[in-house]
Amino acid sequence: MERMYNEYKDVADFRMIYIREAHAADGPRPMGVGKTLGIKEHTDYADRCQTAEMLINDRSLTMPMLIDDMDNTTNLAYQAHPDRVFLVRTDGRLAVAAERGPWGFSPGLDATQQWLSELKKTGKQPELSRAAIEAAEKKAATPGNNRPTEQKPDTGRRPGNGR
Fold first, then answer.
1. How many structural domains is the chain composed of?
2. Residue 115 has what pLDDT?
3. Containing domain of residue 19, as a range?
4. In a domain, 61, yes or no
5. Which stretches of 52-101 are assigned E, i.e. beta strand?
6. Are residues 39 and 75 in the same domain?
């Protein structure tokens, strides 16, 4: 993401939004950077801000970062936990809305890269990235995917984790 930011920051505004920690050392699924850096579940907004700053420094990030509130407003609105990639056109329409979780992150970055590359080349905002169009066509062609599904916000609650 940082590489993409540096390559395309002249044609697009980037924001990373730090939400609740997915793999806090004291959480139900401790792993990765949460475990390595000893990141704990956030108890207040100052704690969340301190953790975000630690991650910025640890990863040498220069991309602007916003921090979700303790009610997890952004996380819930975008169903972003544990991570998710969105690309919003200047007219407010989504050009890329990647799938949630680690399985959607890399394809989301690929679709965003393709969209930004076309924007940089032509100077015009593409409607959708080719990857987004192909993913939508593939999903529509899958049996059982042609009926509407109800999307419920992710409350962060999972059976047995007490939250």
1. 2
2. 92
3. 15-82
4. yes
5. 65-67, 86-88, 94-97
6. yes
Handedness of CA 68, 58, 1, 79 (dihedral sign): negative
Residue 151 has pLDDT above 70, yes or no: no
pLDDT tens column, 48-100: 999 999 999 999 999 999 999 999 999 999 888 888 899 988 888 888 989 88
Task: Please give the structure tokens belonging to residue 127.
Answer: 């409607």
Nearest to 17 by CA among 60, 57, 65, 73: 65
**Structure-token match 């990857």, residue found:** 131
- Give bridge partners of residue 144 from the DSSP assignment: none
5 assigned to some structural domain? no
Q: Is the pTM of this model over 0.85?
A: no
Q: Judge whether 121 lies within some domain.
A: yes
Residue 54 amino acid letter: M
